[in-house]
């Protein structure tokens, strides 16, 4: 078997066999297939695509290229939730402990943020002492004992995907649906959970800007999971504006705890309950309405908050018994921004606000960038809200007065109002389940 023949086949829109894809992935991972030949094959895929079987085989081989977690010793339903990324998206911090409180076992490997999107591991690392790296045995033991562990992605997890993505990033081959779907799902398959809910973000602050794009990606990922023996569904949720009010690591942890305490913003609570209910429906076989009621009741009981505290303390985080929040750093400069006009807010795009938070230091412009866990934004008004002159619009948490000044000027651009109210988009836009 020769790589040049596989390039020619894909250039001519021919399908590759399972054995050919295995040869391709193993050769590229080991280094026997050089970057320039793999780049040629990736470009051919960008132009001519892959069928469902090819995409599933590619996912399977990338997952098998490194560590694959065996969770079979856990005596209960293993679940995972993955988000395609957005602004203010901190649902894992609520869904994971809520699912654990409902009797599911959450073995969660999460990533870091890049550009305008946040990362779960960055948020958790804002908690003093919290350890995001556990050995495989310690990780599985914690999930078995406590029902919940959230850690950073292992370096050994799907190394073929890491190497392939780095090459795609510099060869203009990122924007390919089968390559995107297989990249995401290879890590989910390698993580070991049997039941997976995918939260596919749609809108200005998401990777997928349109509903049609998001549906296509969601369908591809659900079908991959189904072909590889997982029970998967995808929820398409709105990301035209930030989820919740907080953008920034410490701020988002605090807001998540507010929801676990029965407070916090409605959209964040509603989506978190919805996603947890979908996990419960997949794992338990109950109706969605029954699952949602159980999720709401469990959240209201405080059991999910206790699970979150248990996880934080088990992973080394400092959380004093009498304190509402764990120990986290706070920004030295807090600046409020008020409305200069009255009416209805016309547009507060998620991406722009995510970029403002990133420039404050809450996110990374590139993978090697350091972040400041203290900084970010808290929004008090959203698109379509009725406002009056002098109303509190946002709160800036900054490292310096100059940073706060710059952010205030940037926020002023997004404080436009109209005399007429705008229709608000639904939080849940669609749902994709496996065919049959």
Report what the structure shows.
There is one protein chain. The chain has 436 residues and is of the alpha/beta class. It has 16 helices and 13 strands. Strands 3-2-1-4-5-13 form a six-stranded mixed sheet, with helices on both faces. Strands 6-9-11-7 form a four-stranded antiparallel sheet, with helices on both faces. A three-stranded antiparallel sheet has the order 10-8-12, with no helix packed on it. α9 packs across α10.
Our measurement of the CA-to-CA distance between the termini, rounded to an integer number of angstroms, reads 36 Å
Put simply, the count of helices is: 16
Record field, number of beta strands: 13
Order of helices and strands: HHHHEHEHHEHHEHEEHHHHEEHEEEHEE
What gyration radius follows from the Cα positions, in whole Å? 22 Å
Strand order in space, largest sheet: 3-2-1-4-5-13
What is the fold named in CATH at topology level of the largest domain?
Pyrimidine Nucleoside Phosphorylase, Chain A, domain 2
- How many structurally independent domains? 3
Oligomeric state, counting identical vs distinct chains: single chain
CATH architecture field of the largest domain: 3-Layer(aba) Sandwich
Major β-sheet, in short?
Answer: 6 strands, mixed
CATH classification, class level of the largest domain: Alpha Beta
Shape: globular
Strand-residue fraction? 5-15%
Structural class designation: alpha/beta
Summarize, please.
The protein contains 16 helices and 13 strands. Helix 10 (211-227) links the parallel strand 4 and strand 5. Helices cover 46% and strands 15% of the residues.
């Amino acid at each position: 078997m020769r790589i040049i023949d596989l390039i020619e086949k894909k250039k001519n829109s021919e399908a590759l066999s399972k054995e050919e894809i295995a040869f391709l992935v193993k050769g590229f991972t080991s280094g026997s297939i050089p970057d320039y030949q793999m780049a040629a094959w990736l470009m051919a895929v960008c132009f001519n695509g892959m069928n469902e079987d090819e995409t599933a085989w590619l996912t399977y081989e990338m997952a098998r290229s490194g560590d694959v977690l065996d969770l079979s010793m856990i005596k209960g339903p293993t679940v995972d939730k993955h988000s395609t990324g957005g602004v203010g998206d901190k649902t894992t911090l609520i869904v994971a402990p809520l699912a654990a409180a409902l009797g599911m076992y959450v073995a969660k490997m999460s990533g870091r943020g890049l550009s305008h999107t946040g990362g779960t591991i960055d948020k958790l690392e804002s908690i003093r002492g919290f350890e995001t790296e556990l050995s495989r045995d310690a990780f599985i033991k914690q999930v078995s004992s406590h029902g919940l562990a959230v850690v950073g992605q292992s370096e050994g997890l799907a190394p073929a995907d890491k190497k392939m993505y780095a090459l795609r990033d510099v060869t203009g081959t990122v924007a390919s649906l089968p390559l995107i779907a297989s990249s995401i799902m290879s890590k989910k398959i390698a993580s070991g959970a049997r039941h997976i809910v995918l939260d596919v973000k749609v809108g200005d602050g998401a990777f997928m800007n349109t509903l049609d794009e998001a549906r296509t990606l969601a369908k591809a990922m659900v079908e991959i999971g189904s072909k590889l023996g997982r029970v998967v569904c995808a929820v398409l949720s709105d990301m035209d504006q930030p989820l919740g009010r907080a953008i920034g690591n410490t701020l988002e942890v605090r807001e998540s705890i507010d929801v676990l305490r029965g407070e916090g913003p409605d959209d964040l609570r509603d989506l978190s309950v919805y996603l947890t209910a979908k996990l419960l429906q997949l794992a338990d076989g109950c109706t969605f309405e029954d699952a949602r009621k159980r999720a709401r009741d469990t959240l209201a009981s405080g059991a999910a908050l206790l699970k979150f505290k248990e996880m934080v303390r088990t992973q080394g985080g400092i959380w004093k018994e009498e304190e509402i929040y764990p120990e986290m750093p706070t920004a030295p400069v807090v600046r409020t921004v008020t409305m200069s006009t009255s009416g209805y807010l016309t547009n507060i795009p998620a991406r722009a606000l995510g970029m403002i938070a990133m420039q404050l230091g809450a996110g990374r412009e590139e993978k090697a960038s350091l972040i400041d866990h203290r900084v970010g934004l808290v929004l008090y008004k959203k698109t379509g809200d009725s406002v009056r002159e002098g109303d509190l619009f946002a709160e800036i948490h900054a490292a310096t007065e100059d940073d706060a000044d710059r952010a205030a000027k940037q926020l002023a651009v997004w404080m436009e109002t109209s005399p007429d109210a705008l229709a608000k988009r639904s939080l849940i836009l669609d749902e994709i389940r496996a065919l049959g």
